[in-house]
Amino acid sequence: MQVKRTPKTYDVCIIGSGAAGGTAAKVLTEGGLSVVLLEAGPPIVPERDYKEHVWPYDLPHRGVGVGGHARHGFDNEFLAPNGAWEIDGEPYLSAPGSRFRWFRSRIVGGRTNHWGRIALRMAPVDFKVRSHDGMGDDWPISYEDVAPYYDKVESYIGVFGSKENIPSAPDGVFLPPPKPRCTETIIKKSCDKLSILCIPSRLAILTKPHNGRLACHYCAQCGRGCITASNFSSSQVMIPPAEKTGRLTMITGAMARELIVSKDGKVAAVSYIDKATKEERRLHARAFIVAASACESARLLLNSKSTLFPDGLANSSGVVGRNLMDTVGSDAGGYFPQLERMPAHNHDGVGGMHMYLPWWKFDRKNDFLRGYHTEFGGGRGLPGVGDYDELCDEFEGYGLALKRECKKKYGTYIGFAGRGEMIPNENCYCEIDPAVVDQWGIPVLRFHWKWSDNEIKMAKDMQETYRSIVEAAGGIFIPSTQEDAAHPHGIADGGVIIHEVGTARMGERSATSALNQYCQAHDVKNLFVSDGACFVTNADKNPTLTIMALTWRACDYLLDQAKRGNLGA
Amino acid sequence: MAISRRDILKSLTMTAIGGSVLRVIPLEAAEYAHRMVKAEKAAAETHAYSPKFFSAHAYKTLQSLCNTIIPPDDEAKGAVEAGAPEFIDLLTSENKDYQLALGGGLMWLDSTCIDRYEKPYLDCNVERQKEIVDLIAYRKTAKQDPSLEQGIEFFSFLRKLTADGFFTSEIGIDYLGYVGNTYLQEFPGCPPLPE
After folding, report:
1. How far apart are CA B138 and CA A306, in angstroms?
2. Which residues contact B97 (CB under 8 A, 6 or more apart)?
3. Does position B195 have pLDDT exceeding 90, yes or no?
4. Burial of B131 (0-12, 13-18, 19+ CB in 10 A)
5. Exposure pattern of A386-396 as b/e (b: 16+ CB <10 Å)?
């Protein structure tokens, strides 16, 4: 007997389970829609995957893994399995003369498992840059459009901070901030002398119990994954309420290959590879939200070619893959002799900075356009492998002199990380490489990258600022260690700060943008792209909070459409 | 049957996400889980360590050098007591680059000692051991004698790995005075800063 099967059609199919995908899953399922969520990686299992509170000596490799491979790498054994710069079988390329690095998380929650939880609102001026200084483009929305959604996201996920009334750093709905550490007290004092703003940071970490989650217990190990879910990750905060509705179907190990378009020009299905069986499968839905991360989403759109959409889906404007931006990053440090005399004390705090430097020179003319904020940290942290490399090289020798020098210098360094706005330029984009495919046969991305003078000048200003702060505090400045011809003023390569955005930007005009203000494709009405791809600019605000706010807004719009019977119409 | 670490962690996760059903006092429970990790590790430890990569002779030389790099003093034991040689041997057994750098470095040391003193390093007296270590512990000596470069590279790498092994051990962490990796209700902030 032959059974004719009608495939189940979900209301919405979401591709990606990170900041955007997780938020969409929560908002849409709670709004009553049936949702299928595709994630390219495996589930995350806190009891298995989290190494919170493990001491280095509890592990034979002390955290650096087999052969010490992670001795200086990012992927040490303590960290939650949160992604990698290179993934076996899934290459990407940098065009000749370009250096771009792409950090990908193939796991439920995506890069929210890894991020620094820095939750900064974009400022009103950040949405209207062209009107302000003539460069780049304005967003089709204003701060007032997004503010209610910032409120919703912050209220739900929990963000600590303080009301400061600073134009470049709008206040939000805040839990109380934690007290400053010694390192932060020293830098605050120095910044006060120099009239540089230094205020409590804004991190998605709970300083009070919140929405059924426990308050932070101040072990400084957010990067290892938090067993009490006191910090925000999509996997622990967005996905569980979506699952609770009974309307979420999650499919892990599902690598999206292509969006399939029907004759009417709508997306009908997603074709994906089930990694476990290596089989190609299809899922049908009335609407699709692509939330695979800015570049992965662009890749999926560009790989979804058809006679109706020969240049890729939602790409009649040709902007998909274009306007790729990262954050301008330049790091420096300082040695602070006064910290040598600190008595032993618990310095851990939350897993991140308690204070930061918002952009403070917004009221004057600078050598460059736009601004940057500064993250900083250091002090008496849990010792780890590699911590004494620099001291060993500098001090040399051996014996008690070396041993005592290490003790004397322990906890006396503070590092600074400038994080600034890049202006999009025509030399920075990603495209499909014509020849190379990944292990699933999916064509891969090739990146083009070149910083403009504005970013280099910004990096220079960062270095000068950190020198002045360190010296005003009586410390010894340590300039960027990666300054060379290819990295003037220590500017990091494209992608290294892991803030890629802009590859399917929103806008009022379909000729110059891929999406409308609700992250809905101009060309394909039942297609939304709500991750960093939709960004028009990349303000000096870590993008995750804005990704969640824009996604929530897009989903409210979609729910409204559904109520009117227009879902997928 | 004793409650397993897995059970504890699972209950913690459920408390965190599901709300108040399993109101395990989470800090105590997680402390308990941590103690169990330690107990598991202690149970797995065997009596005498047998090197995975280095020959008995090379391992003895490695131990001697680790002890020279970070020796015990009144305040704290040294790198050998802290398990640095075991840590280095484990990593080296899994890493070809380390095998070349450290295996080759130890051979360089012995052959240089034989050239200079007619004995491998371990058989040299304390003065001669100090003499050769003083030559490879500082980069500036390569300017006078470029033949020392390989030894300097070797020692520089071993110094870092020894520091790793020592300062990530319980002994080394106590010695530094790190306080933390624990559970606090409130973060106390900075004690008064010395002026």
Report:
1. 65
2. none
3. no
4. middle
5. bbbbebbeeeb
Distance of residue A244 Cα from the nearest chain B Cα, in angstroms: 10
In the stretch 408-447 of chain A, residues with CB closer than 8 A to chain B read 410-411
**HEC readout, A136-200:** CCCCCCCHHHHHHHHHHHHHHHCCECCCCCECCECCCCCECCCCCCHHHHHHHHHHHHHCCCCEE
* CATH number of the A8-44+80-117+120-158+232-326+425-451+501-569 domain: 3.50.50.60
pLDDT, position A5: 54
Q: What confidence category does residue A259 fall into, taking pLDDT thresholds of 50, 70 and 90? A: very high
Picking from A67, A229, A392, the nearest residue to B160 by CB comes out as A392
Say yes or no for a CB contact (<8 Å) between A407 and B176.
Answer: yes
Domain of residue B88, residue span: 56-176
Considering the domain architecture, whether residues B156 and B95 belong to the same structural domain is answered as yes
> Which residues are registered as beta bridge partners of A430?
A447
Return the residue in B130, B135, B176 with the most chain A beta carbons within 10 A, the one to mutate for interface testing. B176
Q: Has residue B157 been placed in a domain?
A: yes
Confidence of residue A274 (pLDDT cuts 50, 70, 90): very high
Is residue B191 within 8 angstroms of chain A, CB to CB? yes
Number of domains in chain B: 2
Distance (Å) from the alpha carbon of B165 to chain A's nearest alpha carbon: 8
Q: What is the model's pLDDT at position A275?
A: 96
Among A301, A316, A318, residue whose Cα is nearest residue A528: A301
**Which 184-213 residues of chain A touch chain B by CB within 8 A?**
184-186, 212-213
Per-residue pLDDT tens for A29-48?
999 999 999 999 999 998 88
Which pLDDT does position A2 carry in this prediction?
A: 54
Angle between helices B84-93 and B149-167 (to 10 degrees): 120
Window 153-182 of B: residues touching A by CB (8 A cutoff) are 156, 159-160, 163-170, 172-173, 175-182
Report the C-alpha gap between A140 and A121 in whole angstroms.
17
Same domain assignment for residues B65 and B38 = no
Which residues, in sequence order, are bridge partners of residue A256? A272
Q: How far is CA A122 from CA A115, A358, A369, A462, in A?
A: 17, 12, 16, 20
Would an 8 Å CB–CB cutoff place B28 in contact with chain A?
Answer: no
Domain membership flag for residue B192: no
Cα–Cα distance measured from residue A303 to residue A436, given in angstroms and rounded to the nearest whole number: 13
| ipTM associated with this complex | 0.90
pTM above 0.90, yes or no: yes
